[in-house]
């Protein structure tokens, strides 16, 4: 399926395979939500450039010696605690995340969020206080006209953040019957790594296999990647994907 190599000389470790369904089914969800109208934009980056940005106990997950930076705007729906149901109003908002890819000492692959911009204040506060995720309250909008989606985002309230905005325009293409190795590597992620109360934890998630579409990036003007502490991405993304969305369940965090 997909391979992973280390950017440093470490003892050999068995890393879980890349699977289109989770290897860790969530039996008792602690959090539910739905991710809709997603676009995945990805750029390659050298593992050593992002390794210092990952939580302790994790390292960059790589495919053929390369890791990736992701910019993912979407519509969050129905966030709720426990088995749900989610909240129809407070739990629905636009979000954009900047993310990296990680693997821990037990071989579990994951996502590391460098920033998460959300258009509703309450989820921002809850996400920062409970899971310690780097949420920011931002102005955001998603507009769809036929097969073209425009995502726009701007940071709120801080003079130093003026002009730190993101705007992406994407045309949705045909459905993908069989994702490539790279497309599986970038999207089939069954958990996240986060620093929580002085230690790194892995928070598993579970959802149906991604329904993916090819997509074309028509326009991009982004400042979120650099505000997340990453080098600017100077070229076009090497992967542009769209998904209508999935319903997601999160499980119990485990120490990494």
TrEMBL record:
<dbReference type="InterPro" id="IPR018644">
    <property type="entry name" value="DUF2071"/>
</dbReference>
<protein>
    <submittedName>
        <fullName>DUF2071 domain-containing protein</fullName>
    </submittedName>
</protein>
<dbReference type="Pfam" id="PF09844">
    <property type="entry name" value="DUF2071"/>
</dbReference>
<dbReference type="InterPro" id="IPR023375">
    <property type="entry name" value="ADC_dom_sf"/>
</dbReference>
């Amino acid at each position: 399926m997909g391979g992973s190599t280390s950017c440093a000389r470490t003892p050999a470790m068995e890393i879980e395979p890349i699977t289109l369904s989770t290897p860790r089914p969530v039996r008792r969800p602690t959090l539910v939500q739905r991710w809709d109208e997603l676009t995945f934009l990805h750029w390659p980056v050298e593992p050593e450039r992002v390794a210092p940005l990952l939580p302790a106990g994790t390292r960059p997950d790589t495919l053929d010696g390369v890791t990736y930076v992701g910019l993912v705007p979407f519509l969050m729906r129905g966030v709720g605690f426990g088995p749900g149901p989610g909240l129809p109003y407070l739990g629905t908002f636009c979000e954009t995340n900047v993310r990296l890819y990680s693997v821990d000492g037990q071989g579990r692959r994951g996502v590391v969020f460098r920033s998460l911009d959300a258009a509703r204040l309450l989820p921002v506060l809850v996400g920062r206080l409970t899971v310690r995720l780097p949420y920011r309250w931002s102005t955001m909008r998603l507009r769809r006209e036929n097969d073209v989606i425009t995502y726009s985002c701007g940071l709120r309230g801080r003079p130093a953040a003026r002009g730190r905005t993101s705007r992406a325009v994407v045309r949705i293409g045909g459905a993908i019957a069989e994702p490539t190795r790279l497309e599986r590597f970038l999207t089939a992620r069954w958990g996240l790594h986060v620093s929580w109360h002085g230690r790194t934890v892995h928070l598993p998630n579970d959802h149906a296999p991604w329904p993916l579409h090819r997509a074309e990036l028509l326009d991009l003007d982004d400042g979120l990647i650099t505000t997340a502490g990453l080098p600017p991405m100077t070229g076009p993304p090497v992967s542009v994907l769209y998904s209508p969305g999935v319903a997601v369940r999160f499980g119990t965090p485990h120490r990494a």
